[in-house]
Amino acid sequence: MNAIARHRLPDVHLSIRPKLALRKRQRDITPTESVRSLFVSDVHLGSKHTQAAAFLELIERYEPEHLYIVGDFIDGWKLKRRWRWKPVYDRILHRLLALKRRGTQLYYTPGNHDEFLRNYIADYGIVDMQDEFVHEAADGRRYLVMHGDKFDKVEQSMPWLSLVGAYAYDFLLSANYWLNWARGKQHNRYAFCGMIKRRVKALVRHISNFEAQLIDAAVAQNCFGIICGHIHTPRVMQLDNLAYLNTGDWVENCTALVEYHTGAFELNRADGRILGELPALSPGEQEPDDSLTAGILIA
Questions:
Q1: Please, which residues have CB within 8 angstroms of residue 100's CB and are 6 or more apart in sequence?
Q2: DSSP per residue over 2-38, as a string?
Q3: Predicted local distance difference test score (pLDDT) of residue 45
Q4: What does the CA dihedral 226, 293, 7, 202 come to, rounded to 10 degrees?
Q5: How many CA atoms does the CB half-sphere of 157 hold within 13 Å?
Q6: Measuring CA to CA, how many Å separate 183 from each of 48, 143, 175, 207, 233?
Q7: What pLDDT does 201 receive?
Q8: Residue 267 confidence (pLDDT)
Q9: What pLDDT was estimated at residue 204?
Q10: Pick from 153, 150, 175, 121: which is nearest to 226 by CA?
Q11: 174 and 255 in contact (C-beta within 8 Å)?
Q12: Which of 46, 58, 147, 51 is nearest to 99 (CA)?
């Protein structure tokens, strides 16, 4: 019997909108917007396919009280093979430091591509670097925040296969980009590659029982849900009666998870499209002692 069965929480009442409606929904993009928390992962600075300029636009758009970098911010695998550091990367670091000077709390949990940073776990004042965090939202609900790679059985038991797969994926990204460039496709030149990777990652998730293990970890920390990255699949969904929120990535999807001052969450693309929502608890509502009535939209 797993941890979920042992610690069953009351049912979450879902409020699901049709996916077509989700695709049409779009938040107005303003020059700067104050939010409570911003969660980003899998930026992969150092990879030639990172969409760093779009990421810079995102962090210039928001003024968060808390900013969580949920792993694979730096692609150590690619930088080790070939050093590639562009001026836009420096502008990203300068923006993060500027946010820190204005009071933003910075948190960093390393992933598999920046695993070397796990040798330097500490609170450095500028950034707090830990393997995982427990984030308390404005409405009092707790979320376990981690990259998630330690629950990927392929990554843990066959790292050589993961490394080979990463280079094969990089080749596929390049081929997909130039093919779509030749066809004049401008919107998302990585769309086909993203589809292939989603199918591969779905198989990995099945083999690894990835989401279920993450939910078990959240239950063990007495949390309402999990916030993670790693698999490059942005998603907000109910899983075994808890909230599963995956921030996505900045290679194919350009997505981030935003918490507003009410405790509500949105999963947003860089272009303003809203992929999923988790509303805040209603005033006076308790969690987990009373029934949970937070709705979850599935991306």
A1: 106, 126, 127
A2: -HHHHTPPPPBPP----HHHHHH-BPPP-S-EEEEEE
A3: 97
A4: -40
A5: 7
A6: 21, 43, 12, 36, 26
A7: 54
A8: 97
A9: 47
A10: 150
A11: no
A12: 58
Q: What is the pLDDT of residue 282?
A: 80
Q: Are strands 225-228 and 242-246 parallel, antiparallel or unpaired?
A: parallel
Contact 247, 228 (CB under 8 A): yes
User: What per-residue confidence (pLDDT) applies to 44?
Assistant: 96
Collect the ranges in the chain with pLDDT lower than 70: 1-25, 28-30, 153-208, 284-299
37 vs 156: CA distance, rounded Å: 30
Residue with tokens 């405790």: 263
Q: At what angle do helices 191-208 and 210-220 cross, to 10 degrees?
A: 60
Q: What is the 3-state secondary structure (H, E, C) of 96-141?
A: HHHHHHCCCEEEECCCCCCHHHHHHCEECCCCEECCCEEEECCCCC
Measured over the CA atoms of residue 221, residue 70, residue 166 and residue 116, the dihedral's sign is negative
Measured CA angle at 202 (ends 198, 205), to 5 deg? 135
| DSSP conformational letter for 263 | S
Task: Provide the β-strand partners of residue 143.
Answer: 135, 225
SS (H, E, C) 215-237: HHHHHHCCCCEEEECCCCCCEEE
Find out whether 147 and 214 touch, Cβ atoms under 8 Å: no
Q: Three-state SS for 67?
A: strand
pTM of the model: 0.78
> What count of residues does the chain have?
299
Q: What are phi and psi of 113, to 5 degrees?
A: -80, -20
What is the token pair recorded at 260?
């507003």
Quote the tokens at residue 193: 């590659």
* Tokens 């695998």, residue located: 77
